[in-house]
Amino acid sequence: MGYMGRLVDRLEEARRNAFAAVEGMDDATLNIQPQGLQNTPGILLRHLLGSERYWIHQVVGGEDVRRDREAEFDRAVPTSRRWLEHELEAVATKTRQVLESLPEHALDEVVEAQAGNRTLRLDKGSAVVRALEHWAYHHGQLRLMRRLLMGG
Fold first, then answer.
1. d(Cα 104, Cα 119) in Å, to the nearest integer?
2. CA spacing 20 to 30 A to 64: which of 2, 36, 99, 116?
3. Phi and psi dihedrals of 63, rounded to 5?
């Protein structure tokens, strides 16, 4: 397995770990905001899926995903387990397609990306790493939410 295959595997592992943190949560629990925190587990997962779409599908793959980052955090829109599972599969499938069709040397290509109100110039490999780091960062928050909401 080459470097690209290892990146795909690491992203899949990061997604699995994040979703394992909400294992057993029903729709109601996915939409509870733990006291002292700003988001719900469902919101964080929506955000992570939107972020991966942006960094992998758009920045690396060149597809205009028309991300609405603010909508990812909309508390008025409940998140269902069924929707999350469907979106997880769609995002994972597209990510595999993008990365497996990309020659490894393309990871060195410099692209522009928006991060808040800043325009970044970075190579495609760094965009993949950002997506991976983002999953790992929020995984810890999801585990904390699990403890607060389910006691374990």
1. 24
2. 2
3. -85, 135
Domain holding 133: CATH number? 1.20.120.450
CA-to-CA dists, residue 36 to 24, 33, 40, 50, 75, angstroms: 22, 8, 11, 24, 15
- Structural domain of 130: 3-150
Please count the structural domains in the chain.
1
Instruction: Compute the distance between CA of residue 46 and CA of residue 32 in angstroms, rounded to an integer.
Output: 14
CB 60 within 8 Å of CB 124: yes
Burial readout 72-87 (b: 16 or more C-beta within 10 A, e: otherwise)? bbeeeeebebebbeeb
pLDDT tens for each residue of 109-135: 999 999 989 999 999 999 999 999 999
At 108, phi and psi to the nearest 5?
A: -85, -10
Model's pTM, two decimal places?
A: 0.95
Neighbouring-strand partners of residue 121:
112
